[in-house]
Amino acid sequence: MPGLETKKSCITSRSESETIELGRQIGRLLAPGDVVYLFGDMGTGKTRIAKGLINAATNTPLDDINSPTFTLINRYQGDLAVYHADLYRVEQGELEDIGIEMVEESQGALVVEWAEKVPKLDENALRIHLSHTDDENVRIIVLECPQEGSWSSRLWTRRMSDDEEEAVGRDPYKHEQPYACDGESLCRS
Questions:
Q1: pLDDT tens track for 36-58
Q2: Are 76 and 30 in contact (CB under 8 A)?
Q3: N or C: which end of the chain has fewer CB within 10 A?
Q4: Would you give the DSSP letter of residue 148?
Q5: Cα separation, 62 vs 50, whole angstroms
Q6: Which three-class secondary structure state does DSSP give residue 53?
Q7: CA–CA separation, 75 vs 111, rounded Å?
Q8: Across the strands, what pairs with 12?
Q9: Could you report how far apart the first and last alpha carbons of the chain are, in Å?
Q10: Element (H, E) at 121
Q11: 103-113 pLDDT, tens per residue?
């Protein structure tokens, strides 16, 4: 995010279910007009994050949420409409043809896989960077957003309720090693 002060948090996900749960935590915070960009190589967990996010935001069952690799954009409706775009097969010049600008202007939220292909990124978006590690089950996930934006206040001040902690059986963000890049903790004040 050139020119903007950003806030970052690094999270180690040790399984597919932890990656989905992180998506759920973020999905509970999703608001109209939000944009979430997902960056990472093939197989890093972009679709898993998107599934959890969409599931929490719309109550769509996980099995009904699929990456729109061929359809390019799927719409999921709950209290909030969430549009899920997968740009893997889209060439740079084709982006206008799929209507992503129209979705950004809607009252829904937008989740974009392969966001590297978006020529002009929304400065206020939440950016999630996923990467492989030497362990095939472990992913490093970096959340990044403007320090003064709405994502920052939602991500870094929200605490899980007792019901949420009980539902996951443990705090999914407490690992043996610290995960915060800058001393800040996700979902903790």
A1: 999 999 999 999 999 999 999 99
A2: no
A3: C
A4: T
A5: 10
A6: helix
A7: 10
A8: 140
A9: 24
A10: none
A11: 656 788 999 99
